[in-house]
Amino acid sequence: MKTSQEASSFNSLLRKCPRCGADNSSITPLVYSWHEWTLKSCIICKFVYLENPPGYEALVAEYAWERNHGDRSVRMRKEYPFTYNFSRLWKKIRRFLIRKPNKLANRVSKFFLPGVVVDIGCGTGDYLAKLPNTYQPLGIEISEELARLATERLSDRKGKVLAMSAIEGLSSVPEGTVSGIIMRSFLEHEQQPVDLLSFAWKALRPGGSAIIKVPNYDSINRKVMGNRWCGFRFPGHVNYFTPESLQEMVESVGFSIKSFGVFDRFYLSDNMWMVANKPRLDS
Ligand SMILES: [Zn+2]
Prior knowledge:
Largest sheet: 7 strands, mixed
Number of helices: 11
Shape: globular
Helix content: 25-40%
Distance between the termini: 52 Å
Bound molecules: zinc ion
Order of helices and strands: HEEHHHHEHEHEHEHEHEHEE
CATH superfamily of the largest domain: Vaccinia Virus protein VP39
Strand order of the largest sheet: 5-4-3-6-7-10-9
CATH architecture of the largest domain: 3-Layer(aba) Sandwich
Strand content: 15-25%
Oligomer: single chain
Structural class: alpha/beta
Radius of gyration: 19 Å
Number of domains: 2
């Protein structure tokens, strides 16, 4: 694995605010910035984002998503060994005590019409492989290795996997043909989240829905844990949504919000869940 100095030899882009387009290059980075990765809070709209993410080619080559989780574990173990060990133990206890409801499967069966279901950043295709038979799986995965594994995994479901970026993948799907789109722990990685949402909207048929799960920057844990918060991942996470900014961005491309209640964005949880719908033509 490369050191951060070597990694910075990849071309970094200097991003403007992905929400409102403001140039924040002259303002002071947030204290949550880490090594060469600068987080900015937009001077106009307050959206928090990574200003200098690596380009897509670097994502594929060096920061492929299968590595992101590992990178965070390594960082936590090295920099905060006590928190790291405590949080691992706590997770084990919690898993033992609470059998959590399957939030994704529940939403899929409640909100997705039968037909094609796209999983963006599908990894090895585990979730798509478990979809009920009323759905036809379509994966999009930027990592070629994971896309290859997913293709194998989905071969008996007649599923297809596109080894492409999310925007390339969604724009290659015929417009108005998809029943459901899963963006689970994905939108926080996308450098052009508004474009991605707008391609998702186009790909969906009227009445189709998107399920979105992202870390909640407004969660109490972020305020308490500061830069040890599990939502901070460098340089993988490039957008830090609050309930308000997520809703505004999703609605700005034409979606209507189907489900985003108090418990979908509860301040004690690190993540939030939204279901957004492409309205039917007659409604
Ligand atoms: Zn902004």
